[in-house]
């Protein structure tokens, strides 16, 4: 390839360089440095104004097309953003559907709470498969192939679920490909938004807010379909969004081929090696050639503690979101519609917390660690209040208003904990471990997001569903304690604490 055909550095063009798989909403925006955020407004003025910015490059006998990731000047990028926004609605609905349908599935298939809890494990397996296969998928089929596969899996298996399969095992199996598709969508959406040249933080927030909003409206929508007597037809709603997403994906990602992915990875590796050579750090040079393994990364105290934190955090968050509806229905009232609104208030609070408390952190706290510690104690207080309120038996309107408010507070304060903790972890980790370290932590966190809800199902089956809030409280108390002790194990970074 002629030297004149080599494009500017990846940062200049904002092109995709690395696939990162994440479970939970808004976290990846933390991989963006604060300096990048501050430069956004300055960089907008210096970006090209024309829309004909697609360049063609010869790479290993194939044509590779590159373009700056600026949705304002490149219509193709705007379509990519729209596709990700649409598919994150599917993501949010999928994550909350299981929890909203738990009582219905138990009754319809005549199964126990332990049996229905297997759905969480199956979906996790699919998500982990996506985490392990994302890079290979991009190498062989490009980002276009990954997105089409993800949307296609969602369409096919949502159609199957919409038919109300006669066997629970068919229903449970559908969670595996759905988890795989969602994992791919999660990764691609976060990488795209994090690579944008302008308004990346804003669009990242919008994308994850759509996730929260979709999760928020799912319980009430499911309850209406259940009351109607056709619970499975709810899946037509995420199916509709999946089809629209597929239609947008076809033109939006047409240039995101395997050859382009290979080209961008080669470009990034070349730049990383050049930087290391200039620094004269031989050990770091070795690390760019061979990334540390899973268990090697976990030996790093910052990564291990961050992983443990996410294990407990996601365990508490997903257990709350998945089991609160069943808990309320069996212990408080049989009114499915009313209880679905109370359950949805958790996701409402989570969405509000992630959107609003970021501004509070910036204005009223010295750093992200102190903010997250304060939010953790507020979360613990909210869950304590919920446990206490849950001990009261009342059918008054005032009681359910208080219950709604308490659950809302649980969601509001737990919402920003993941993104704030991610920022702190990235501050104390060396740059070369950012991607791999966060990837390991999120993988471990995903295990907590499956294992703890499953444990909740076992507890509900053996000793009673009334103990679910206590289980969530224990998880919150444990990660609050761990986060309080976090600085004692991380040496040499006192400025971040």
Outline:
This protein is mainly α and 497 residues long.
Low-confidence segments, given as residue ranges, are: 1-51, 279-290
**CATH hierarchy class name of the largest domain:** Mainly Alpha
Q: Widest sheet: strand order?
A: 1-2
Query: Span from first to last CA?
Result: 49 Å
Account of the protein in words:
The protein is globular. It has helices at residues 10-13, 34-46, 75-109, 113-162, 168-195, 200-228, 236-252, 258-279, 282-289, 294-298, 301-331, 336-364, 368-390, 397-414, 417-428, 434-462, 468-489, and strands at residues 55-59, 62-66. The chain is built from 17 helices and 2 strands. The chain is 75% helix and 2% strand. It has 2 domains: 1-290, Up-down Bundle (Growth Hormone, Chain: A); 292-497, Up-down Bundle (Growth Hormone, Chain: A), CATH 1.20.1250.20. By secondary structure, it is mainly α. Strands 1-2 form a two-stranded antiparallel sheet. Helix 4 (113-162) crosses helix 7, helix 4 (113-162) crosses helix 16 (434-462) and helix 11 (301-331) packs antiparallel against helix 17.
Features:
two-stranded antiparallel sheet; 2 strands; globular; 2 domains; 497 residues; Growth Hormone, Chain: A; disordered N terminus; 75% helix; mainly alpha
Topology:
Layout: H1 10-13, H2 34-46, E1 55-59, E2 62-66, H3 75-109, H4 113-162, H5 168-195, H6 200-228, H7 236-252, H8 258-279, H9 282-289, H10 294-298, H11 301-331, H12 336-364, H13 368-390, H14 397-414, H15 417-428, H16 434-462, H17 468-489
Helix pairs in contact: 3-4, 3-5, 3-6, 3-7, 3-11, 4-5, 4-7, 4-8, 4-16, 5-6, 6-12, 8-9, 11-12, 11-15, 11-16, 11-17, 12-14, 13-14, 13-15, 13-17
């Amino acid at each position: 390839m002629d030297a004149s055909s080599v494009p500017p550095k990846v940062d200049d063009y904002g092109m995709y360089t690395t696939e990162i798989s994440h479970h939970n909403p808004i976290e990846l925006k933390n991989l963006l440095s604060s300096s990048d955020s501050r430069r956004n407004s300055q960089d907008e003025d210096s970006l090209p104004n024309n829309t004909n910015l697609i360049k063609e490059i010869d790479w290993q006998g194939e044509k590779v097309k590159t373009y700056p990731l600026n949705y304002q000047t490149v219509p193709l990028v705007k379509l990519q953003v729209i596709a990700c926004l649409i598919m994150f609605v599917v993501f949010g609905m999928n994550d909350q559907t299981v929890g909203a349908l738990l009582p219905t599935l138990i009754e319809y298939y005549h199964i126990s709470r332990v049996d229905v809890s297997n759905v969480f494990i199956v979906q996790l397996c699919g998500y982990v498969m996506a985490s392990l296969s994302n890079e290979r998928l991009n190498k062989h089929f490009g980002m276009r192939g990954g997105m089409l596969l993800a949307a296609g899996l969602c369409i096919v298996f949502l159609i199957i679920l919409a038919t109300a399969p006669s066997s629970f095992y068919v229903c449970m199996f559908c969670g595996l490909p759905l988890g795989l598709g969602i994992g791919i969508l999660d990764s691609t959406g976060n990488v795209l938004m994090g690579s944008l040249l302008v308004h990346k933080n804003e669009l990242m927030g919008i994308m994850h807010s759509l996730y929260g909003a979709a999760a928020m409206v799912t319980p009430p929508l499911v309850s209406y379909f259940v009351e109607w007597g056709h619970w499975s037809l709810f899946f037509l709603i995420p199916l509709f969004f999946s089809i629209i997403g597929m239609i947008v994906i076809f033109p939006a990602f047409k240039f995101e081929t395997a050859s382009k992915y290979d080209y961008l990875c080669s470009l990034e590796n070349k730049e990383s090696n050049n930087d290391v050579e200039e620094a004269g750090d031989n050990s770091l040079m070795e690390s760019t050639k061979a990334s540390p393994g899973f268990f090697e990364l976990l030996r790093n105290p910052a990564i291990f503690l961050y992983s443990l934190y996410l294990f407990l955090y996601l365990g508490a968050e997903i257990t709350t979101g998945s089991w609160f509806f069943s808990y309320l229905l069996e212990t408080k009232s049989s009114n499915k519609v009313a209880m679905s609104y109370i359950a949805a208030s958790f996701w409402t609070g989570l969405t509000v917390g992630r959107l609003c408390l970021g501004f509070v952190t910036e204005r009223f706290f010295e750093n992200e660690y102190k903010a997250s510690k304060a939010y953790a104690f507020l979360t613990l207080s909210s869950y304590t209040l919920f446990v206490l309120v849950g001990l009261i038996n009342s059918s008054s309107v005032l009681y359910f208003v208080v219950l709604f408010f308490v659950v809302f507070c649980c969601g509001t304060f737990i919402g920003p904990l993941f993104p704030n903790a991610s920022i702190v972890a990235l501050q104390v980790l060396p740059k070369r471990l950012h991607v791999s370290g966060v990837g390991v932590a999120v993988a471990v966190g995903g295990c907590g997001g499956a294992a703890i809800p499953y444990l909740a199902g076992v507890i509900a089956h053996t000793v009673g569903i009334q103990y679910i809030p206590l289980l969530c409280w224990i998880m919150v108390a444990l990660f609050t304690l761990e986060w309080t002790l976090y600085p004692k194990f991380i040496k040499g970074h006192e400025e971040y604490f």
